[in-house]
Write a structure and sequence with these properties.
407 residues; mainly beta; globular; disordered N terminus
């Protein structure tokens, strides 16, 4: 407890917090990420499922002209990214961004599917169709299990600025929808937060409130924590994390956070300056104040990532660990949520429809994971080539073997 009070004092007073241990300290290659041979990493076993796949490969394609009559024509929609998972009403749920040819263009909207086992999925349905405001888009932002209800979140903003697609528009808002079990439909909830785009749905803080790290339209110098969400899903307090451009060139992007065993929060950030490393910050007061961000030694390919603490106590982080590209997707484990000591590849098949896994095969870009734990397994969703949403189901027993060094 004295440790937490001390860190809170340091954060409020503006002093530097005590240095954290290195983020990477693998049992075989130590703290130097350059020593990792990604083709020689152990490979976890697991099942594979295809959630949704576009009819074409969109690489190198430009955005197509949209006609509202095309909304139910599968051949017109190739782009799929930003997938999220939840378990609700005895079924797995997935949602994602669904677009024309290139990501985050106008008319991008939300689709979802369900599954009894996490591997065989229903036909996708529309969660929220293309925005009614001309030139606007939705970007999927997660499935939020709140007070026994399933909520879907998505950002809503104008896609074009200065004649090209940019992030994020001045009208940026976070919107919500609630699943109505009796009616079997999604009810719009309106604005959840103004001037904010989250990266993952809210998670519980040690004090019982909800929290999520968000970005503003000027996101590379305006990253903040929203805390609250208890009285209403749109009741939040905003606390700054990054408020200006940083001297070392760090450009914060697509953050995640988790609670450490001692109750502190660790925030982790992709670096859009392409340093190939994560940055991190710590909060000792439930996200109200944060230490200065610092560069870690954990490798990253400048892509989205996700970490959760499993029911067995250890942490599992999924990311594109090779800085050279978005393949492979790796899973790393940590006992304390700070230092990760084991790393393995996920068993992603060469083809989106499944089949053989070849550790030496670069099966295209596989990116933007989200992970949930249920029924003794981790279910991991990701996008291949930004045209297909897939899942990998891994036994928690096997992940624990990796963590113990027995894999």
């Amino acid at each position: 407890m004295k440790h937490l009070f001390f860190l809170t004092f340091l954060a409020v007073s503006g002093l530097a917090a005590p240095a954290l241990p290195p983020m990477l300290r693998l049992a075989d290659t130590g703290e130097d990420p350059a020593r990792i041979d990604y083709n020689k990493l152990p490979v976890l076993r697991g099942g594979h499922g295809l959630v949704s796949k576009g009819p074409h490969d969109i690489r190198g394609m430009e955005a197509a002209i949209f006609d509202l009559a095309d909304v139910n024509d599968p051949s017109k929609w190739n782009f799929r990214l930003h997938s999220y998972l939840a378990f609700f009403e005895g079924r797995y749920w997935a949602m994602w961004s669904h677009g024309r040819q290139v990501e985050d263009h106008p008319t991008q909207h939300l689709r979802y599917a369900t599954s009894a086992d996490g591997l065989t999925w229903s036909e996708p349905r529309i969660l929220a169709g293309p925005p009614t405001r001309d030139g606007f888009r939705y970007i999927a932002r997660g499935l939020w299990l709140r007070d026994g209800k399933l909520l879907a979140l998505a950002s809503h903003d104008e896609a074009y600025q200065g004649g090209r697609v940019r992030f994020f528009g001045a009208s940026l808002q976070l919107h919500g929808w609630e699943w109505l079990p009796a009616a079997r439909e999604w009810k719009p909830l309106g604005v959840i937060a103004d001037g904010a785009i989250n990266n993952f749905p809210p998670a519980k803080l040690p004090n019982g409130e909800w929290g999520m790290i968000c970005r503003a339209p000027d996101y590379q110098r305006n990253v903040f924590m929203l805390t609250g969400g208890v009285e209403r899903p749109n009741a939040w307090k905003r606390s700054p994390i990054v408020t200006e451009a940083l001297a070392d060139g760090f450009r914060p992007e697509e953050p995640d956070w988790w609670t450490l065993p001692d109750g502190r929060l660790l925030g982790l950030f992709r670096d859009n300056a392409r340093s190939g490393r994560f940055y991190r910050a710590v909060s000792a007061d439930n996200g109200l104040t944060w230490s200065a961000t610092e560069k870690t030694n954990f490798p990253d390919a400048t892509s989205k990532f996700f970490c959760l603490r499993t029911s067995r106590g250890f942490y599992a982080l999924v990311n594109n660990a090779n800085p050279k590209g978005r393949n492979p997707l790796c899973l790393s484990t940590s006992a304390d949520g700070i230092t990760f000591t084991r790393m393995a590849r996920l068993p992603i098949p060469v083809a989106p429809e499944g089949g053989a896994f070849d550790a030496g095969h670069a099966s295209g870009s596989v990116q933007y994971p989200h992970v949930i734990e249920h029924d003794g397994h981790l279910l991991i969703t990701y996008s291949r080539h930004k045209t297909a949403i897939e899942v990998i189901r891994v036994s928690l027993d096997d992940v624990e073997k990796l963590h113990r060094g027995a894999l």
